[in-house]
Amino acid sequence: MNMSKTIPSDTFPIPVRSSIERGEAIVELVRTAGFQSIESLAAQFDVTPQTIRRDVNLLCDHGILRRRHGGVDVPSTGENLAYPMRQVLNIDAKRAIARRVAKEVPEDASLFFGIGTTPEQCAHALVEHTHLRVMTNNINVAVALSPNPQCEITLAGGRIRNLDQDMVSSEAHNFFGRFSVDIGIYGVAGVAEDGTLLDFSSDEVHMRTELSTHCRQRFLVLDHSKFGRSATVRGGHITDATAVFTDKPISIELEKQLHQAGVRLIICSDPVLPRNFRRSGL
């Protein structure tokens, strides 16, 4: 019996232009609807089962999805996806968020940057700002901003997580507490239905909590895939932010909570472009 949950038929076959776009759409579908069989995916994307197998094998080899008999589902929630895969997943959404964040950051600002791929994209978007003072435990952020000679960068010490290129171990735990800055920019692994923030380790939660405690404004940056995504360690709430930047509307309940807490919700979606339009740059 086919247990795949499908999207209503009027939205399929999904119009995609490349295997990369199809891969991103497969990931989004599996995260939204759960287990998908190879046959179901082939029908929904209007391609052969052999084509879908190539797509899902690549996604599974990189840890983005998990093989199950006859199909795929999401990996277990005990660990995050590999950083290189997270860097390209939903990249257009992350860049749209980053461009919007850059408009909110004034010149001469002092900033905290947390770990993750969306804060990294925010750093790229801020590379031409003048006289920024940045404190971060994210090596990717430091590298992104380093071409700007007017940006002063202070990096946390401690043991590096080699694949993630960041420091969250106990040696780095007091880093953000040494400073008081204008804006903290941080992401999370997931947001539960009640607004609880989730990450994959207590060290990650500790660093994020310390970051948000010592800045005057708190910018939570996350694409739509983080809402409803499971992770193992709870810490903080979405209403702890000053502003939440995402790329799609969120649930009515969470939007109500943000409104009642006085937290700005900023939807950072790009306009729909013609299919033959070629993007350039960021």
From TrEMBL:
Q: Which residues form the HTH deoR-type domain?
A: 19-74
Q: Which UniProt keywords apply?
A: Repressor, Transcription, Transcription regulation
Question: Which InterPro entries would you find in this protein's record?
Answer: Carb_Metab_HTH_regulators, DeoR-like_C, DeoR_HTH, NagB/RpiA_transferase-like, WH-like_DNA-bd_sf, WH_DNA-bd_sf
SMART domains associated with the record: DeoRC (SM01134), HTH_DEOR (SM00420)
| SUPFAM superfamilies in UniProt | NagB/RpiA/CoA transferase-like (SSF100950), Winged helix' DNA-binding domain (SSF46785)
Q: Please indicate which superkingdom the organism of origin belongs to.
A: Bacteria
User: For this protein, what is any one GO molecular function term?
Assistant: DNA-binding transcription factor activity
Write the protein's name.
Answer: DeoR/GlpR transcriptional regulator
* Species for this entry: Undibacterium jejuense
Upper classification of the source organism reads: Bacteria, Pseudomonadati, Pseudomonadota, Betaproteobacteria, Burkholderiales
